[in-house]
Amino acid sequence: MKTLIEKANVLNEALPYIRKFYGKTFVIKYGGAAMVEEKLKDIFAQDIVLLNFIGIKPVIIHGGGPMINEIMKKMGKKPTFIHGQRVTDKETIDIVEMVLGGLINKEIVALINSHGGRAIGLSGKDGSLINAKKKVVRKLSADTGVSEIIDLGLVGEVEKINPGIILSIEKDGFIPVIAPIGAGHKNETLNINADYVAGAVAAALKAEKLILLTDTPGILDKNKKLISTLNKTKIKSLVSKNIISGGMLPKVQACQNAIAGGVKKTHIIDGRIPHALLLEIFTQKGIGTEIVK
């Protein structure tokens, strides 16, 4: 009986949040261990279906870097990175599109559908969802001290999100699952950082929340303790002290871009925890770092 009462208390705690978020759009960036471990993949799909059934509209943007690396190596092609960005020639972009828009995207769709959801896979090229441009990366030359442009190939950044196809899909009760690939000015395929795509999509939809799943508990302070809430001023301080650095930088920037675009709250959470989404959304304390205006 005690266990049953505890379960009832959990539902009671969730009720105000279910009521508050009914009909709202949540953009979720899906990546890290949650995309790799079979048990976590299944739990994520279940949680997405639950959100959908209680009236929340989830929109999923997924990554897939490790699988791209794996397939490239099997095809005899060595992955190359500059400043954390994948150098992407024509052969590589074909592999990227095959893995992101095909293998990974359709696996996520199938998992969600197997739990009773109705998911539809898209890439940013579908319905002109993502208009992109080539990403320009600069660095100072060690020899001349002059800023030089590094050519990463077919790597892009979001220029504009056209959310019409997402809105049409949501209206009919479907769950969009989006691969972060866009079309450039010459209709070339461009590979785009999934964090930035998620932030831009959330802003275009004026989503209630942007949630990024990572392989860390959230943003940690200098003593490696979780910071539960951050704003723009605190973020600037942590970046200047190099406490926020590396792979966390694009995630934080994506959150800030989303908030500037009208998203109410953003969250960076640990996708290695089973039901991380539900714990962050439907409990008072949450489990990760919340970035607010």
The ordered H/E elements are HEHEHEEHEEEEEHEEEHEEHHEHE
Quickly count the helices.
9
Average pLDDT value? 89
CATH homolog superfamily = Acetylglutamate kinase-like
Number of domain modules: 1
The parts where pLDDT drops under 50 for at least 5 residues are none
> Which value, in Å, is the CA radius of gyration?
19 Å
Could you estimate the helical fraction of the residues in percent?
Answer: 40-55%
Number of strands: 16
What is the straight-line distance between the termini? 43 Å
Question: How can the largest sheet be summarized?
Answer: 8 strands, mixed
Portion of residues in beta strands equals 15-25%
CATH class: Alpha Beta
Q: Kindly identify the CATH topology.
A: Carbamate kinase
Shape field:
globular
| Order of strands in the sheet with most strands | 5-10-2-1-13-15-16-14
Structural category: alpha/beta
